[in-house]
C-alpha cells in the first residue's frame, strides 16, 4: 500500500483495506455490487487510505479495525467522486479499465457514485460524530473545488490563485481529511491531529501539481487514462498557466486553447508547453508544498513512520524522473 509514504508493513495493510473495501460495497443487488466495485477491482494508488494508516502509524498507534474503516471511508469518497467526474467529463476509461459511465451509462454511474458516498458516510458515522461531520464537510469541499474548476473551463485567463482555490477543494481537502482521520480514530492529542491535517493539505497540493505535470509528460499507459486529458477538457493547470505567461509560446498556445481540441491540437499544445520551463517551474512549486508538508510534521518527532511521511512528497515528485 502506497510505498510513497514509506509505510512499514504496507502490503499487509493494503490487503486489509482491500478486503474491507469489497465488504463495504457489497449490496443486496448483485448488479449494484458489480458496478460499485468496478473501480475497486481496477486497482489504483490507494494514497488516501494509505495516508490514514500512515498517520496512525506515525503516532505509534496500532492499525486497528477503526483505522482500516477510516481508510475505507475516505477511499469510498474518492471513488464516488471519480464516478461523478467521469460522467461530467464523458470519460471512456479510468485506471486502464472502461469507465462505469461508458460501460453502463451515466445514470448508473451517478447512482453508483451516490451509493459509494452513502456507504462512506455510514462508515464514518460508526467512527463517531466528529469523523462523520468531517467527512460530510469534506464532500462539500470537493463539490466546491469542482465548481471552482468548472468556472474556468477553457479560460486561458485562469489565474494561479483560481487554480489553487480549486486544488484546495477538489484534492487537498480529502488528503487533509485522510490524515486527520488517522489521528482522530487513534485518539491523538488535538495538536497532533492539527499537525497531521496541515500535512495532508500541503501534501495534497503537491500531489495535484504532480498529477497535472504527469498529464502533460506521461503516456496513457502510465496514467491509466488518456494523456493530455486536462487540455481536452479545458482544465488549464499550473504548468499550462505558467506556459501561457511566457512570450515565446503565449500567442501560439492561446491560438490552440480556449476551446475543444482534437488529437493533433492536443499533442501540439503538449509539445509547446513541454518546450518551455513551465513544467520545471511547476515541479519546483510542487517541491515547495512537499517541504511545507514535511515541516508540518515537526510536532510528531522524527520516528521512522514520521520520516516516511515527511519524505513522501519529494519521493512522489522524484518519480517524474522516470516518466
Entry keywords:
mainly alpha, two-stranded antiparallel ribbon, 2 strands, 323 residues, 73% helix
Shape: globular
First-to-last CA distance: 21 Å
User: By helix and strand content, what is the structural category?
Assistant: mainly alpha
> In DSSP terms, counting alpha (H) and pi (I) runs of 4 or more, how many helices?
17
Q: Report the strand count.
A: 2
Spatial strand sequence of the major β-sheet = 1-2
As a percent range, the share of strand residues is: under 5%
The string of secondary-structure elements, in order, is HHHHHEEHHHHHHHHHHHH
The profile of the biggest β sheet is:
2 strands, antiparallel
Give me the Rg, rounded: 19 Å
List low-pLDDT spans.
none
What's the gist of this structure?
By secondary structure, the chain is mostly helical. Helices cover 73% and strands 1% of the residues.
What can you see in these coordinates?
- The chain is mostly helical and 323 residues long.
- It is 73% helix and 1% strand.
- The chain is built from 17 helices and two strands.
- It has a two-stranded antiparallel ribbon.
- Strand 1 and strand 2 form a beta hairpin.
- The longest helix is centred in the middle third of the chain and has 28 residues, at 190-217.
- It starts with 9 loop residues before the first helix and ends in a 5-residue tail after the last helix.
- The model has no long low-confidence stretch (mean pLDDT 91).
Amino acid at each position: 500500500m502506497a510505498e510513497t509514504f514509506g509505510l512499514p508493513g504496507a502490503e499487509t495493510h493494503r490487503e486489509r483495506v482491500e478486503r474491507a473495501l469489497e465488504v463495504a460495497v457489497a449490496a443486496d443487488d448483485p448488479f449494484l455490487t458489480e458496478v460499485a466495485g468496478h473501480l475497486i477491482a481496477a486497482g489504483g494508488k490507494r494514497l488516501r487510505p494509505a495516508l490514514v494508516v500512515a498517520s496512525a502509524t506515525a503516532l505509534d498507534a496500532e492499525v486497528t479495525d477503526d483505522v482500516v474503516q477510516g481508510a475505507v471511508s475516505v477511499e469510498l469518497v474518492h471513488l464516488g467522486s471519480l464516478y461523478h467526474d467521469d460522467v461530467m467529463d464523458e470519460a471512456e476509461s479510468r485506471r486502464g479499465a472502461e469507465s462505469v459511465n461508458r460501460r453502463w451509462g451515466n445514470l448508473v454511474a451517478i447512482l453508483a457514485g451516490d451509493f459509494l458516498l452513502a456507504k462512506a458516510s455510514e462508515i464514518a458515522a460508526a467512527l463517531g460524530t466528529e469523523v462523520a461531520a468531517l467527512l460530510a464537510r469534506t464532500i462539500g469541499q470537493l463539490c466546491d473545488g469542482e465548481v471552482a474548476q468548472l468556472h474556468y473551463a477553457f479560460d486561458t485567463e485562469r489565474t494561479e490563485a483560481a487554480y489553487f482555490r480549486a486544488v484546495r477543494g477538489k484534492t487537498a481537502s480529502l488528503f487533509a481529511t485522510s490524515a486527520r482521520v488517522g489521528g482522530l480514530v487513534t485518539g491523538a492529542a488535538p495538536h497532533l491531529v492539527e499537525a497531521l491535517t496541515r500535512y495532508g493539505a500541503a501534501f495534497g497540493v503537491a500531489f495535484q501539481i504532480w498529477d497535472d505535470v504527469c498529464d502533460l509528460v506521461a503516456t496513457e499507459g502510465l496514467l491509466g487514462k488518456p494523456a493530455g486529458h486536462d487540455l481536452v477538457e479545458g482544465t488549464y493547470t499550473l504548468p499550462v498557466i505558467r506556459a501561457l505567461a511566457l512570450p515565446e509560446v503565449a500567442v501560439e498556445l492561446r491560438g490552440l486553447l480556449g476551446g475543444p481540441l482534437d488529437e493533433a491540437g492536443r499533442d501540439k499544445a503538449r509539445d509547446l508547453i513541454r518546450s518551455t520551463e513551465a513544467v520545471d517551474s511547476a515541479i519546483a512549486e510542487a517541491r515547495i508544498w512537499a517541504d511545507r508538508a514535511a515541516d508540518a510534521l515537526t510536532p510528531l518527532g522524527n520516528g521512522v513512520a514520521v520520516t516516511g511521511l515527511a519524505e513522501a512528497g519529494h519521493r512522489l515528485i522524484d518519480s517524474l524522473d522516470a516518466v
